[in-house]
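Annotators were shown the component list below and the corresponding predicted structure, then asked to write short factual statements about the assembly.
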Amino acid sequence: MSASRRDLGVVLHLFLGSARLQKKRAFLTIASIAWGTVTILLLLAFGEGLKRQFARNERAMGENLAICWPGESSKVWKGLPEGRAIQPRIDDILVLQQRMPDVRVWGEMSTGRTLLQYARKAVNGRLIGTNYVYGDPRKHYPRPGGRFFGPQDEEQKRRVAFMGYEIAEDVFGKEDPVGRTVLINGSPFTVIGVMQRKTQTSAYGGQDKNHVVIPITTFRALFGRDKLNVVVLHTETEDEMDDAIDRMKQYFAGRYSFDPKDERVFGIWNTVKGQRISGKIFLGMEMFFGIIGALTLIIGCVGVANIMYAVVKERTREIGVKMALGARRGWITGPFILEGLSYTLVGGLAGAVIAIVIVTVLGALPQEKLKVLEFMGQPTLSWPIGAATVAILGTAGLLAGYFPARRAAAIDPAATLRYE
Amino acid sequence: MANAGEDAIIEMREIRKVYDTGKIKVEALKGIDLTVARGEFVAIVGPSGSGKSTLMNLIGCLDTPTGGQYRLGGEDVSKLDRDKLADVRNRRVGFVFQGFNLLPQISAFENVEMPLVFGGVSLGERRGRVRELLEKVGLSDRMEHKPTELSGGQMQRVAIARALAMGPDVVLADEPTGNLDTTAGGDIMQLFADLWRQDKTLVVITHDMTLARRASRVVEVRDGRIIRDVSSEEVA
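Structure shown to annotators:
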């Protein structure tokens, strides 16, 4: 028999012998580890769910957007006085789109309250006129059977409307609005799409579910207005945004004669900044959850180590006897380490199963019915969470067994064996 | 008495042991020369503090000497590491203690089996060997009993069976009758005498002169030295 197989055989023999005698202790220890595992997994799962849901809600308005409100110049420039209103127009958007093909640019004009009529219903709602590129980056995804308006609609000033789902319900009730005609400010429009449901936590001007969007050209024809309320930029990546904003300012500075360094001309909401901050906040939150969970788990492991220390102390004489009978050090430490590891592994496994069951049950709850879940999201167990938990458990288990075992191995058999 | 020298089991030369407890150095053994031949029955006697416990720890390879040379069964064991010493104890030494030192939670059978587990003896062979040993000490009907269910004399017999399990070079007994009443003590002494007759080498550390007189040789230790080494007939 090779030395290592013999070692393994002896360690297993001793381990099984002691495990057989320690059922209650084993159960309690395993339960404490399971508890710790459930805690860490649920905390991380809720954190992950919250993060995902928050990100989804926060980004329901769209990602990588810069919403630019035109204002007044605040610096004297080329003989012109300060305090001049800068007023971009629809045509500026076309120029910008040509100059910045890598950036999605659109303008928006809007009304606070516009009369919408269908059959005998009359509802006041917010109306937006904008370019067709608005649809995707602003996450105005149509429900099946509908669409957002396209370039032809804009070019031909078609009377088509895309509606938020809540205002659509206000106007049409249970009927499907798509294909029906709604009177907007007295003019007939065909509803071509209704927005999919989304939970939105950031907005400018109002929630998307409550407004109606029409082509900007149609809006101009309807209201005789040409001045944009906002100019919006959307970039593919976060990093492109600052440059895109600079280029837009450069264009308008040349077009309307103001100092391109004048920070006051546009009030800009750059969502990239917010995204970055909330990313950090959530990283911090996850770390916080992780630390709390890990601490709980560590308490469990300290419990294991504590019990094992007590066992070592209680069995000092036994360990001395075994040493006298020829047990090598590894045969003394092995069963303790194995015991610590098996408690943590069995406990960890049990905890993981419990956590998975809880998460699955919560996941099966209908999200629409529970307002809380709309913001809290569904607890989500991810691979990194699992890997982190396994790593913490494994380390803690090893340590919980190792330190008591080391003490056991340090026992001097000669000192323990003589007399009572 | 067997012939020492060629067939020596224990050969100690100039053995010294110093306990270094930080500030104070205690010299427990000040140069011991001791040879025990195969088949001898040696009693080591001496008052407490004489160094006989230290001597026993060294003979039993529970500790290593500070100086000198110790050969056990022909193998130099003076400078082995802990695991090697453990193997030597397993193969060459059988311990019998005053306090029995049986593992309380397992049966007599499993107690006797323990050194065989450490010795890497296969399961089948272990079973036969343990049964044989327990029969030898007269406990074939007590194999599955736990130590708490046995009398003191029975426990010591289990311990003796355990000491014999690996067929050691020497059985080392530390006050084996110290915790027993006269009758049980007498039985154990008889058992030792029987073992001696079966050519086992026995070293017994004891206060008990009745037991010492049963030995073939009495070694008296005092103040870290051997002061007397005589055959038992010469002991007063």
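Statements collected:
1. The CA atoms of residues 112 and 205 of chain A lie 9 Å apart.
2. The two ends of chain A are 38 Å apart (CA to CA).
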